[in-house]
Amino acid sequence: MKKQTKVIKIQSERTHNRENSTPLYLTSSFCYEDAAQGKDLFDGTLEGNIYSRFSNPTVQEFVDKICVLEELEDGVATGTGMAAVFACFGAHLSAGDHLVSSKALFGSSHQIITQILVKWGISYTYVDASAPESEWEAAIQENTKMIYLETPSNPGLEIVDLEMIGRLAKKHDLIYCIDNCFATPVLQVPSQFGANLVLHSATKFMDGQGRVLGGVVVGTKELIEKVRFFTRQTGPALSPFNAWVLSKSLETLHLRMERHCSNALALATALEKVEGVKQVNYPFLDSFKQKDLAKKQMSAGGALVTFELEGGFERVVRFTKLLTIPSLTSNLGDSRTTITNPFTTTHSKVPTEDKYGLGIYEGSMRVSVGLEDIDDLIQDFTQAILGSK
Ligand SMILES: *Cc1c(COP(=O)(O)O)cnc(C)c1O
């Protein structure tokens, strides 16, 4: 069976009620038939659910689907994407260890690395996402334990060469951990390039409709075992309700990503021709610097488009007032087109010089292109850009 069929077919065992849709096990704990069964469950003689901080059938169903999509053995779901990021670090890095990471990261991931891990004696080296292999390799030290990255990055859409990093991780025997949130496993499967730990903010495209928070980590059995110990004890469990929503949403992920990507490519192409737009970034645009690399490792360009408006932040305010379709919000991966000004929102705490280094300017806009009719979107963006001159 192909993945698209599997994500529809995988589900908790049908109950005596003969339900067609998947049941929701909204329960904090599970009963023992007798005290002996309780003992066996706790000492591991018997495998089964005990308490939903440890495991839950609805949550497991969601994890099973992600394992199939990411082609990895085992996984753990978390309450948010950030809990997934922190669980990967917390489970695998110890005092004295060193992390090599791409510089272009989600804001909170950057905060964890630079403000929290360092408190516990875990050091890091940042490398530019598009740096050559020699630069990535030079960052690796004796005590390096993990390489961490996002590709495409947020909001710069920089592409990291997954195959090249896979080669380095293997050569230096490092954990190769990727936040695959922007591409989703529909567009890019990092394990095919050697990644052995892949995480997601399920809040984004996996939900796809802006309703619930969630996260997930999948990887090799050996690496997940440590992540599972970490999350069991520290407690960032995914709610069964959110898992149920996410599991149902995965049934339409392939279909949604197809439309997100075709809409995004069409909008990016149209924006390039509108007066007042300085620079449009989209991985599958002909003008995109890393287009060849993007096409090598992704099957489509994703839903995110960024562009810079001439006229700085004052123009941004006028432009967003004139837009009628998109929601002005910092979330992404929604059926609704969402738009934000990263300079003053998601990246407001990053020093200005660093923002410029990441290609984030006062007039930069990040668009997560939704599932609306593409002609309506192009028309709306065009009138708002021209009208805000
Ligand atoms: C949103 C996001 C996160 C954090 O996920 P939450 O579910 O908000 O905790 C991490 N990485 C990337 C790339 C994201 O877009």
Provide the β-strand percentage band.
Answer: 5-15%
* Main sheet overview: 7 strands, mixed
CATH topology heading of the largest domain: Aspartate Aminotransferase, domain 2
Biggest sheet, spatial arrangement of strands: 1-7-6-5-4-2-3
Q: Just name the CATH architecture of the largest domain.
A: 3-Layer(aba) Sandwich
Summarize the amount of helix as a percent range: 25-40%
Number of separate domains: 2
What does this entry look like structurally?
The protein has about 400 residues and is an alpha/beta fold. It folds into 2 domains: about 250 residues, Aspartate Aminotransferase, domain 2, CATH 3.40.640.10; about 140 residues, Aspartate Aminotransferase, domain 1, CATH 3.90.1150. It has 15 helices and 12 strands. Helix 4 packs across helix 9 and helix 11 packs parallel to helix 15. The model has no long low-confidence stretch (mean pLDDT about 95).
In short:
The chain is 40% helix and 15% strand. By secondary structure, the protein is an alpha/beta fold.
Give the key terms.
binds pyridoxal-5'-phosphate, Aspartate Aminotransferase, domain 1, globular, Aspartate Aminotransferase, domain 2, 389 residues, alpha/beta, 2 domains, 40% helix, five-stranded mixed sheet, 15 helices
Which helices and strands appear, and what pairs or packs with what?
Elements: H1 3-9, H2 35-43, H3 57-70, E1 74-78, H4 81-92, E2 98-102, H5 107-116, E3 123-127, H6 133-138, E4 144-150, H7 162-171, E5 175-179, H8 184-187, E6 197-201, E7 215-219, H9 221-234, H10 240-250, H11 253-271, E8 277-281, H12 291-297, E9 304-309, H13 312-322, E10 327-328, E11 338-340, H14 352-357, E12 364-368, H15 374-387
Parallel strand pairs: 2-3, 2-4, 4-5, 5-6, 10-11
Antiparallel strand pairs: 1-7, 6-7, 8-9, 9-12, 11-12
Pyridoxal-5'-phosphate binds at residues 80-82, 106, 150, 154, 179, 181-182, 201, 203-204, 213, 215.
